[in-house]
């Protein structure tokens, strides 16, 4: 026969067990047991969004849980970055970001609401993304040499777009101006897709495209003059790099990848890294990334972190030289 005291003790034990269960799930013992969200810190249609969506379906199949995409663009990736950084470190929120948010933004924002180096942890690199110097077809120059001369003869008369101040296409534009001595007006947008649309509409003159405009290049709606990478693109082997055009050392490549909130359990990070690397090796995914002019980049979280640090040092130099600050 139970006494009131023993019944109270049993009830307390049951309540304690029930309270402990979510904590066990949060620590990854049953992970994943619910949908996973990938925050993309740029609007739909850009390279980050397209890569995240390409990876999400096979990742969903591998993990046995829905993988949902949430676009939170703005402030060159900071808005979505903060959403991910502030999320519980339980493996149910990931971030897909360009390298600029972690390698560039700390150099151009006097103050950020979070610290990418402390509040986020690299999970898996996804792709090395190139930038392609494209112009509207109505511009007379048909090669990079003539284009440079054309712009230099018209200081301040031409404009170029970017996904935002401090984005890799913007930094490519600043590198371009620095090494050629030309002057053109920078027009920042809230993502790569809106900038591309204005270029197609003729409201911009040129653009360092992160790969999403290559279909328009093939269709003759844009003219591709050069690649802002140390090596030529396999998609356009006849198109020179800017280094080959005389802009020695020109390198505006960036690495897009997946991050998790700091202190996410290491076993979850290891599992995600393994699954994402396996997905990146799939022919269909490699082809999808290649269609953006990029290159799938599987590897360890440590290798990803090393690349982030190297890019931060490289981009900091042009940021200091050009005195680039966020708007």
Question: What does this protein structure show overall?
Answer:
With 327 residues, the chain is an alpha/beta fold. The chain folds into 2 domains: 35-128 and 254-322, Bordetella uptake gene, domain 1 (D-Maltodextrin-Binding Protein, domain 2, 3-Layer(aba) Sandwich); 132-227, D-Maltodextrin-Binding Protein, domain 2 (3-Layer(aba) Sandwich). The protein contains 13 helices and 11 strands. The strands form 2 sheets. It has a 6-stranded mixed β-sheet with strand order 2-1-3-10-4-11, with helices on both faces. Strands 7-6-8-5-9 form a 5-stranded mixed β-sheet. Helix 2 crosses helix 11 (266-280) and helix 8 (168-180) crosses helix 13 (301-322). Mean pLDDT is 90; it is low at 1-28.
Number of strands: 11
Which range does the strand content fall in? 15-25%
Low-confidence regions = 1-28
**Strand and helix order:** HEHEHEHHHEEHEHEHEHEEHHEH
Q: What is the CATH C level class of the largest domain, in words?
A: Alpha Beta
Helical amount among residues, as a percent range? 40-55%
Number of helices: 13
Radius of gyration: 23 Å
What CATH architecture of the largest domain do you see?
3-Layer(aba) Sandwich
Strand order of the largest sheet: 2-1-3-10-4-11
Arithmetic mean of pLDDT: 90
Largest sheet: 6 strands, mixed
Total individual domains:
2
Coarse structural class: alpha/beta
CATH superfamily of the largest domain: Bordetella uptake gene, domain 1
Q: Roughly how many Å apart are the termini?
A: 73 Å
Spatial shape: globular
In the CATH hierarchy, the third-tier topology of the largest domain is known as D-Maltodextrin-Binding Protein, domain 2
